[in-house]
Write a structure and sequence with these properties.
mainly alpha; abc type-2 transporter like fold
Length: 376
C-alpha cells in the first residue's frame, strides 16, 4: 500500500513537472490549438479538389439556333466559364497561353448535319498538361454535350436512342464537396503533428539541458517517468482533436454521422500510437533538432502522402500500397472519413482500430526496450 502511494506521488510529481513545462512553452500550446485553426482554414477554404468554373472556349463557325443553344448549355453550367471565339485559331492561341483549359468547336456544317439526322460531332481540344484536370474537363464536356443532345432531339420529336439509362445516386457525400473529404482527414494530420512532434522533443530536451542526470538519481522508475511525460501531452493532443472536430462541424458544416464517443475512442488510440512514435524518436536521437526532423520525415510526410488523406491509395502502385500499411494515419483517416460521412460502419471501424491496436503494442514494446535508466 505504501509502495503504491509512493509510486502514485512520483507519477503525479512527474506529470506536474511536464505540465508546467508545457505552460511555460508557448510553442506547445500553438502546435496544439493554433496550428489546427491555420491548417483547417487553409485546407477548408483555400484548397479544393472540386473542378468548377473551368475556362473553356466556344467556337461557333456558323451561329444559329442550335449552336447558340449548345453554347448556352456550357455558359449556364456551374462547371464551366465559357468564352466565345469566332475562329478556331483564336481559341488555340488562348489554349496555348493557358487562358482556357479546353475548346468546344462547332463547325459550319454542325446544324445542317443535326437537322438532316446525320452524325453531327463537335470538336473538343483539351489541355493535357495536367492529366487529372484534363480527364475531368473531358468528362464534364461529354456530359454537357449528351444532356443537350438528349434534350434537343426530344424537343424535335426524335428521341435519342439510349441502350443504357444511367441513374446516378451519390452516397455519403451527395454534394460532391471535397471539403467533406479533406477536413476529416486533416484531423489525422493535425493529431500526427501534435503527437509525434511534441513528444519527439521531451526526452531529447532533457538530454540537451542536462536535466536527465537529475531525473536519473530520483526514485522515479522508468515507467513512471515515461508515463509522466506522455499523459500531459495526451491530454493536450485530445484537446486539440476536440477543438478540430468542433471547427469541422460548426465552421465547415462537415456532418458527423457516427458516434462521437467512438470517434473519441479511436482518436485516443491513434494519439497513443503517435505519442509512442515521437517518444521513441526522442529516446533514440537525444537531440531536439534531429528529433524534430525525424518526426517530420517519419510521421508527417507519410501521413500527408500515404494515408489516403489527399491521394487515393487504390490508384497508387502496388508496392506503395503495401507501404501504406505501415503508416498509422492510414487507418485513422479511414475511421474519420467513415464516422463523419457514413456513420458507424463497424466492419471498417473495427478493422482499422485493430490495426492501430497492433501498432500501439508494437511501439510500446520498442519504447520499453529502448528505455533504460542509464546515462549511456
Amino acid at each position: 500500500m505504501i509502495a503504491n502511494t509512493a509510486s502514485r506521488m512520483r507519477l503525479l510529481g512527474m506529470i506536474r513537472k511536464e505540465t508546467w513545462q508545457i505552460l511555460r512553452d508557448p510553442s506547445s500550446i500553438a502546435i496544439a490549438f493554433v496550428m489546427p485553426v491555420v491548417l483547417l482554414f487553409l485546407f477548408g477554404y483555400g484548397v479544393s479538389l472540386d473542378a468548377k468554373h473551368i475556362p473553356v472556349g466556344i467556337v461557333i463557325e456558323q451561329p444559329d439556333l442550335a449552336t447558340r443553344s449548345l453554347a448556352g448549355s456550357f455558359s449556364r453550367s456551374e462547371f464551366f466559364s465559357s468564352v466565345l471565339y469566332s475562329t478556331i485559331q483564336e481559341a488555340e492561341k488562348a489554349l496555348d497561353k493557358r487562358d482556357i483549359e479546353g475548346i468546344v468547336w462547332m463547325r459550319n456544317n454542325f446544324s445542317a448535319n443535326l437537322l438532316s439526322g446525320r452524325q453531327a460531332p463537335i470538336g473538343v481540344l483539351i489541355n493535357g498538361v495536367d492529366s487529372n484536370q484534363a480527364n475531368i474537363t473531358r468528362g464534364y464536356i461529354q456530359g454537357t454535350w449528351l444532356a443537350w443532345l438528349s434534350h434537343y432531339t426530344e424537343a424535335h420529336g426524335r428521341p435519342l436512342p439510349m441502350p443504357v439509362t444511367l441513374e446516378q445516386r451519390v452516397w455519403f457525400n451527395a454534394a460532391l464537396s471535397s471539403r467533406y473529404f479533406l477536413v476529416p482527414g486533416l484531423i489525422a494530420i493535425i493529431m500526427t503533428l501534435i503527437g509525434s512532434l511534441l513528444t519527439a522533443m521531451v526526452v531529447a530536451r532533457e538530454w540537451e539541458r542536462g536535466t536527465m542526470e537529475a531525473l536519473m538519481v530520483t526514485p522515479l522508475r522508468i515507467g513512471e517517468m515515461l508515463a509522466g511525460k506522455l499523459i500531459p501531452y495526451f491530454i493536450l493532443g485530445m484537446g486539440g482533436m476536440l477543438f478540430s472536430v468542433v471547427l469541422a462541424v460548426w465552421e465547415f458544416d462537415v456532418p458527423l454521422r457516427g458516434s462521437f464517443w467512438l470517434l473519441t475512442l479511436s482518436a485516443a488510440l491513434f494519439m497513443l500510437v503517435a505519442l509512442l512514435i515521437g517518444l521513441l524518436i526522442s529516446i533514440v536521437s537525444k537531440n531536439q533538432f534531429v528529433a524534430g526532423q525525424l518526426a517530420i520525415i517519419v510521421t508527417f510526410l507519410p501521413a500527408f502522402i500515404l494515408s489516403g488523406f489527399l491521394f487515393d491509395i487504390n490508384s497508387m502502385p502496388a508496392p506503395v500500397q503495401l507501404l501504406t500499411h505501415l503508416v498509422p494515419a492510414r487507418y485513422f483517416v479511414a475511421i474519420l472519413q467513415t464516422l463523419f460521412l457514413a456513420g458507424d460502419i463497424w466492419p471498417v471501424i473495427l478493422a482499422n482500430m485493430g490495426a492501430l491496436l497492433v501498432m500501439l503494442i508494437f511501439f510500446f514494446t520498442l519504447v520499453r526496450i529502448k528505455s533504460r535508466k542509464r546515462l549511456d
